[in-house]
Specification:
Blueprint lengths: L1 E9 L6 E10 L15 H8 L5 E7 L2 E2 L5 H6 L13 E2 H5 L21 H14 L3 H5 L7 E2 L2
Antiparallel strand pairs: 1-2, 1-3, 3-4, 5-6
Length: 150
């Protein structure tokens, strides 16, 4: 669960508020799209969640105030898909695992690549592709070794 409570965000400690009175709750396991016109505050909300800017109010993730979390741990636990997705020339696998070793995608079932056999990592990638409806498309081609380019 993620909760923002009565928040005010400023880009600088003494600067004017860019967000004021922000309160919302995201239930556990929910997938959320934050949409709105330019300047509506989408990136600012993300900046608050990542502790990029001073934030007045409370941000709680799974009943823990994010101020009590280290930045590395906090940021490793959040996943963001931007509107300007980057696609690097290479294979599907290299696009899904651009920086190795990685932390587990799903700790109980997806071991970190540095400690896991390649087959376990591939199983995790296939599960993710199945969840987004791309498994069949890639199986009809060269699987995780399918070449992609911009």
């Amino acid at each position: 669960e993620v909760r923002l409570q009565d928040g005010v965000l400023r880009y600088h400690p003494q600067g004017p508020p860019v967000l004021r009175g922000v309160t919302f709750r995201v239930p556990p396991q929910a997938k959320v799209a934050v949409v709105g016109r330019t300047g509506a505050g989408k990136s600012s909300v993300l900046g608050a969640l990542l502790r990029l800017y001073p934030y007045e109010g409370r941000i709680i993730i799974d009943n823990v105030d994010i101020g009590a979390l280290g930045l590395v741990g906090l940021r490793a636990g959040l996943r963001v898909v931007t509107q300007d997705a980057a696609l690097l020339s290479g294979t599907v696998r290299s696009n899904l695992l651009p920086l190795q070793p990685l932390q587990p995608l799903d700790a109980p079932t997806c071991p970190a690549p540095a400690r896991a056999p390649a087959a376990d990592i591939d199983a995790c990638l296939w599960r993710a592709l199945r969840q987004v409806g791309l498994e069949g498309v890639l199986q009809a081609r060269e699987g995780l070794d399918t070449c992609v380019a911009e």
